Amino acid sequence: MNTEKVTARRLTAEDIAELGLQDGIFVSAGTEGLPLDCYAPAFLTKPGKDFEGGAFTARTVFGEEIHVLPDNADEGGIWAADEAGEEIEVLQSAGVLLNLALFVPGGNKESLDSLYSAAREAFGAGVVQRWSEETVAVPDVKVDLYEEPARARKNTNSQNRDRRALDIYPTRVRFLEPSEGWKFIVEPHKEIVDDTPTI
Predict the structure, then answer these.
(1) Cβ neighbours, 10 Å, residue 182
(2) Cα–Cα distance, 194 to 198 (Å, whole number)
(3) Which of 38, 42, 85, 191 could form a disulfide with 9 if both were Cys (CB 3.0 to 4.6 A apart)?
(4) Helices first, then strands: H and E counts in the chain
């Protein structure tokens, strides 16, 4: 567990009421019932003055929502950096969790194992882990993906289409989102033939 020492002071409910969404704070790093004797960088979910009843909600940089009663001595409270304060241990946010969906052409157990081994060798055996694995057979075909206005007029030609991505596999389409006000059109892939005469 990587932590760094930060000089900070514990805030009262009155102090927190003056904070905005951009003000960095530290809250208890305990997660999903796992108590950790350190803090995590966080931000309030709404301006401090908008909370009522003395309870505040903060979201850590790790995506956890924490509900805090800052004046409760049994809780970790909310802290802010202050050179005149005391030292606290703060978790470093130096890692990124990637949820990967991989398409392996002709994929079999041997190719998946070699891919896993190569990733562990590149990033470290303690870093790369399989949390869940779903093996799904997908057709080895390509599609063309277009965007067009979600409310297009009928009987109009397709000139307003915008080619968003070319030669992509159908399994990737579900991980993409269309632009606001547009929808995806998926068509079988057609090779672009350049029939420009050459000399």
Answers:
(1) 19
(2) 10
(3) 85
(4) 3, 10
Whole-angstrom distance, CA of residue 78 vs CA of residue 13: 9
Q: Which amino acid is at 188?
A: P
Per-residue pLDDT of 65-89, as tens digits, reads 889 898 888 888 899 999 998 999 9
40: CB partners within 8 A, 6+ apart: 26, 27, 28, 29, 60, 61, 62, 64, 90, 91, 93
Determine the Cα–Cα distance for residues 63 and 90; give it in Å rounded to an integer.
Answer: 16
Q: Which two tokens stand for residue 93?
A: 């946010």
Which tokens hold the place of 143? 């599609």
Q: Exposed e or buried b for every residue in 153-174, given b needs 16+ CB within 10 A? A: eeeeeeeebeebeeebeeeeee
